[in-house]
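Tutorial, part two.
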Amino acid sequence: MNLLIKRNKNIRPIKFIKNYIKFNKSSVLIESGNTKVICNASIEKKIPKFLKNKKSGWLRAEYSMLPYSTSIRNNREIFKGKQSGRTIEIQRLISRILRMSIDLKKLDNKSTIVVDCDVIQADGGTRTASVNGSSVALYILLKELYTQKKIEKNPFKNLVAGISIGKKNNKLFCDMNYKEDSSTEIDVNIFMNEKKEIIEIQGTSEKKPISKKNFFHILELAEKNIPLILNAQKKILEKI
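Running the prediction step on this input gives:
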């Protein structure tokens, strides 16, 4: 099953395809414009050492870009011997945001949810697309575990979604592609849940400082458009 949300004034077309990977029911392909990310959610029976005796499960994310996800081939990081700072930063971002969408105390205290985000085509907004697709994959996984009585309570609380917003020539751009993003003066990623509560904001000024007025305009644009992504997520989950 797939869902396509056509582009409005601000947001690129969004498409979700469930069960994209044959061997994992909790797999989702998200297409945001020309950016495509495969998101898989799974569970493993182990937790980090720092959670020993804490009566809590855990969630972590892994993020990678395939060699030809961009116009120039990227070398696989495994051959470099280490992950790039960008990869680590995005993995931590995805992990933090998704952990805010579940109650880890309701998860088996010997289990870790692993979310894999593999970018197969990048045209801006890979981190927001990864979160948007992973939230759907995570919902599917937890509902399946609860239905099969592998967990006593479903720990899922809220869907989460993010969007990129930039500014150029006194004009705000929402859900930017690579061309728009590479020339922007201000670049902000905002993540919210279904209650319009802010989970995380990442922002930088490339050329000019962000004024308080501009920042509030950016927040308003995010509040207006993130619900469109959340509605798309809900639509694909209606028949689960």
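Confidence is low (pLDDT under 50) at residues 1-8. In part three we will examine how such features are distributed along the chain.
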